[in-house]
Amino acid sequence: MQRSPLADRINRIAYLVVNVSDAERSRAFYENLTPLRVLTSIDAPEQTFHSLGIAEGSFRGYALDDRSGALPMQVHLIEWTSPRPVGQAYPVFWHVGLAKMAFITTSARSKLQQLKGAGVEPSNHLIYRGYTSIQDPDGVIISFPAQQIEEATEIHETLIHTNPSVRDIERSMDFYSNVLGLHLASESVPPQPVESSQGPGSVLSQWDSHLYTGRAGGPFHIDLSQFHHPAPTPDTLTPYEQANNLGIARIGFEVDDIEACRAILGAGEIEEWDYGPGWKPRRTLCFRDPDGIRLELFEKDFTVQRHRSDGANPPPLDPQGQSATP
């Protein structure tokens, strides 16, 4: 099979964009219950986002990373200030779209204790396959698959995957493999519905899942999944139409030459987005997968600055979290 030209352009899966209704509330939630910590703030002024279908818009929020080492995965918590967020996050884990994210954790029992201590109840009353699932303040489904059931003295966690739930797994695999050029790392295809605690809506589930990584590797995967049980219904078949809908909105990929990527894709408009103080202009190309799930490429030539409690700013950071100064 011929190698996709984008395979040599996409460096890594870099971040998830999560639209929230209250950036401060969401920041506190994720820092309290996940390994994510704020890297810097985002304060995008009024500007045009043609590729998102927003003629004039602005947003604020935070870029967080999971502190997983040389290739930290980021989550961008985005609160649209104009236009304001709309809709709701997907209520069930098999909804077509970016249905949920997952953090691998050390111990299921220890995680349960932490969640209950924070007043957060799991979305499933019983825990199967070591999965504990909850919802964030806006309803986004978050799962914590555990390495063990027994209690652990320490909890170590990493952002491990997001789930693009799709209608036709063969069509989607062709796109993610042969158009994006991602690497198929593993598969999970149970022959019948099994008990699982993947999130609200059902205890039983059956999936056809294929996990992809970028050429840089790293612990984070795109868990491309078609759910056969529960059976899809008309109200679960369409991803978010509006870019400011609450929930996981986009997956971001770091590339080294966005002009070359646009030429390969043969579509899309390269835009320069202003994320506010501390950010260089972000050259971005947005497009959709076969199900209409939003994806974006960004060119890696930008820097951000960490905030410190003493108010001082250390040297700028590149997207990998390394000092950008000699």
Automatic annotation (TrEMBL):
Residues annotated as domain VOC: 158-300
Region (Disordered): 305-326
InterPro entries given in the database record: Glyas_Bleomycin-R_OHBP_Dase, Glyas_Fos-R_dOase_dom, GlyoxalaseI/FosfomycinResist, VOC_core
Transmembrane region(s): none
Pfam families hit by this protein: Glyoxalase
Name of protein: VOC family protein
Organism: Kineosporia babensis
